[in-house]
Structure of PadR family transcriptional regulator:
Amino acid sequence: MVKKNRFSEPSLLILISLAEKNRHGYAIMEDIEKNYDIKLGPGTLYGAISRLEKEGYISVIESEDRKKPYKLTDEGQIYLTDQIKELQKVTSIGLKRLGLV
Amino acid sequence: MVKKNRFSEPSLLILISLAEKNRHGYAIMEDIEKNYDIKLGPGTLYGAISRLEKEGYISVIESEDRKKPYKLTDEGQIYLTDQIKELQKVTSIGLKRLGLV
DNA sequence: TAACGTTATATCGTATAACGTAATAATAAA
DNA sequence: TTTATTATTACGTTATACGATATAACGTTA
């Protein structure tokens, strides 16, 4: 397996993508690639999506065609907010300790 | 498995701990617990430590007693800085999309 | 318009590394 | 002598990486 040397936590990136607006899987993938230059393979992407759905953080919206758009649930929004705050605490302490602030 | 609802990326937290000063495993654990209220089990902690050592991001310092203090290598410092910057990008976009900025 | 290639969209399977949990051990301290 | 400190090891579970497959839709060109 190839070790990825950059940060990548697919589920977090997916939630952030859906925080902007409702999107189907493929559109989420494009959004993430465009914003962070991180390319999620289909297995990684849809695997993370289905776990997030199972946990109730995102849910499917009905649609006519074969696209399956998702939206962030209220629970997902709360969860994401917590995650990001925690992460900001971590990075803030990190920067201090690195002497970059 | 118990799903942890908080962010936890042991290796990142360990690197940040060592960015402040050299520490042995147990002291790293205490530092992390004190700062983020995240308690790493020994398997998680020492597993992550040995991976970080193998990748050259941290290294052991000689010591007389049974403690094994580690220090952040130059490579580890660069790596950590990158990670944190990437994470800050992610959280910053996340906050914007959540409407929290 | 028919044929063809390409992009869009999703599912599934497998391998492995990270993580969680716990058992064990040994020394130091209270 | 009981508790805290410090580390190692093993095992099970899960997330992720990677890739194969499938089909629909679209665009281009013969």
